[in-house]
């Protein structure tokens, strides 16, 4: 089972696309500390990237540099258009 999880992340990396905007350049992996951080009651609506991680039940997201910077700056409310 443990190797299956590693395989899944490796396959996502090898796909070579940002999971938010589908860009193919400058890919990075965004990590969160724990899944419980995604579903905090009493907070405003979740950004699209948090919703995607919660839906997949994954603590990682393969994204491009631009999306990663925007997540950390609090600017990414919804995915970029292609």
UniProtKB/TrEMBL annotation:
<dbReference type="Pfam" id="PF21368">
    <property type="entry name" value="AI2M-like_HNH"/>
</dbReference>
<dbReference type="InterPro" id="IPR049030">
    <property type="entry name" value="AI2M-like_HNH"/>
</dbReference>
<protein>
    <recommendedName>
        <fullName>AI2M/AI1M-like HNH endonuclease domain-containing protein</fullName>
    </recommendedName>
</protein>
<feature type="domain" description="AI2M/AI1M-like HNH endonuclease">
    <location>
        <begin position="18"/>
        <end position="68"/>
    </location>
</feature>
């Amino acid at each position: 089972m443990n190797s299956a999880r590693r395989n899944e992340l490796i396959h996502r990396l090898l796909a070579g696309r940002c999971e938010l905007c589908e860009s193919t350049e400058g890919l990075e992996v965004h990590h969160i500390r724990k899944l419980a951080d995604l579903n905090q009651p009493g907070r405003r609506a979740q950004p699209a990237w948090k919703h995607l991680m919660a839906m997949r039940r994954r603590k990682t997201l393969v994204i491009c540099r631009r999306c990663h910077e925007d997540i950390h700056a609090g600017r990414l409310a919804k995915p970029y258009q292609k």
